[in-house]
Design goal:
alpha/beta, 6-stranded parallel sheet, 15 helices, about 25% strand
């Protein structure tokens, strides 16, 4: 594909990196920041163009005349929308993806049409991370939670801990420990190295395990990996921006929520908008304020400001003062390793959460959803099997007869309203939604080829 990415910020850089590391992609990144472009070009096999992406001459120089996809992810909604408009009007770019942050625009979908503002797909990092955090709060022991099939099937990433019945046991013992419940271990990471999830593979304390199960069975499966924590009740949010305010509104009906905003005017606005949340004006790194608000009683502390350093400091302080669990947003990738060695429980990366949404619209074939995992090294994919036995390499065939790339696991099949956990003898039918886990995302091209429909394959 020929792809133009407008914006060399965290989201744009992550998208460019993901696409440039795959074969057969020609990527051009446009930004007004020449230094940021030089940094990218030193690390990736891409073209760069310095200029404003909403200007026709800049788009033309970037190759808009024969581009397949325009991904506009600058910091300005208006620039992104105008760039899509120009790309369609002047160059008839087939697919236009735009980052839209302002909810007022999102609330009027009629605006985004080729007859109005020609945006084919809207990406909202703030909405994505808000929904992602809300899912994490539902499952206190999870490190990652991803949904398939409208939430009927979940992919959970969690750490195996001492005291869990599966510690030291082979994977095939899951059936004995969970009679009547089906689950599929999709991947195991031990000291950051992928371990094949075979039936006789033993789980060790400290392993990071990804497994698939029906939503109704998730907690039972989690309970054999580690002793489960109690559900969350009390939540403190630092940051009154788009993410913090929206998350408080989403959670306040089920949890006791306190929100801290350093901006007095914004605190007053949120106090009027939120029904049950307690809104405070102050600094979330203020020890006295946290102690006054009983930080030691909080089940979760969430640092969601726009400043990485403030988030890290506030989360570490909250954890030291007694918060049960601490999470924070981190935009700079180099901070993630430092966080994981420290006291903060989960580092939330908006651009890694966003990139899966972008990739969903870029993958060849009938891809329903893509989730970028483990900082982009792995992917979970839901893809539809099309064709019949004469035109498809997968339809009508058992899973153990498929030529799957190394490190690929088929975990489940979504068939109509039914969820089937995959086994070696499961036969894939036409129109099945197949959920796969790839430990090496560089193999995605092989998956796309495997699920492509052709003539005379056999």
């Amino acid at each position: 594909m020929k792809v133009i990415v407008l914006g060399a910020g965290q989201v744009g850089s992550s998208v460019a990196t993901a696409l440039a590391t795959e074969t057969d992609n020609s990527v051009t990144v446009v930004d007004t920041d020449a230094e940021a472009l030089n940094w990218l070009q030193e690390r990736l096999d891409i073209r760069t163009v310095t200029g404003l992406g909403s200007q026709p001459s800049v788009l033309q120089e970037a190759g808009a005349a024969d581009a397949d996809i325009l991904i506009a992810v600058t910091q300005s909604d208006e620039t992104n929308m105008l760039a899509c408009q120009i790309a369609w009007t002047l160059f008839h770019t087939p697919t236009k993806i735009a980052r839209i942050r302002v909810t007022d625009y999102q609330d009027h979908p009629a605006l985004f049409d080729n007859a109005a503002i020609p945006v084919d797909f809207i990406i909202s990092p703030e909405r994505l991370i808000k929904d992602y955090i809300a899912r994490l709060i539902q499952y206190p022991d999870a490190l990652q939670v991803r949904e398939f099939g409208d939430g009927r099937l979940l992919l959970i990433g969690m750490e195996v801990d001492r005291g869990g019945p599966m510690v030291g046991e082979p994977i095939h013992r899951l059936r004995e420990l969970l009679p009547g419940i089906e689950a599929r271990v999709a991947a195991i990471y031990r000291h950051d190295t992928s371990v094949p999830p075979e039936g006789d593979t033993r789980l060790l304390a400290g392993d990071e395990v990804f497994f698939l199960a029906r939503k109704s069975d998730i907690r039972r499966v989690m309970s054999v990996m580690r002793p489960l924590d109690k559900p969350y009740k009390r939540i403190m949010i630092a940051g009154g921006g788009n993410i913090g305010g929206a998350l408080a509104g989403k959670l306040e009906g089920d949890y006791q929520v306190k929100l801290i905003s350093h901006n007095l005017r914004r605190a007053r606005e949120l106090s009027a908008e939120l029904d049950r949340s307690i809104v405070l004006s102050g600094n979330a790194s203020d020890t006295e304020l946290l102690e006054e608000e009983n930080i030691e009683d909080m089940d979760v502390f969430l640092a969601l400001t726009n400043d990485d350093e403030d988030n890290i400091l506030a989360a570490m302080l909250a954890k030291r003062l007694g918060a049960r669990r601490a999470m924070c947003i981190v935009n700079r990738t180099e901070y993630v390793d430092l966080i994981e060695m420290g006291s903060i429980d989960i580092a939330l990366s908006p651009h890694q959460i966003t990139i899966g949404e972008v990739l969903t619209h870029l993958r060849r074939g009938d891809v329903v959803s893509v989730y970028s995992l483990r900082r982009g090294a792995a992917e979970a994919i839901e893809i539809i099997a099309r064709g019949d036995e004469s035109t498809s390499r997968v339809v009508g065939r058992r899973i153990d007869a498929l030529n799957l790339p190394r490190g690929t696991t088929i975990g489940a099949i979504l068939r109509d309203d039914e969820v089937q956990i995959a086994h070696h003898d499961t036969v894939i039918r036409a129109d099945d939604h197949v959920v796969l886990f790839l430990t090496d995302k560089r193999r995605i091209g092989e998956i796309e080829q495997l699920f492509s429909v052709g003539f005379g394959f056999f």
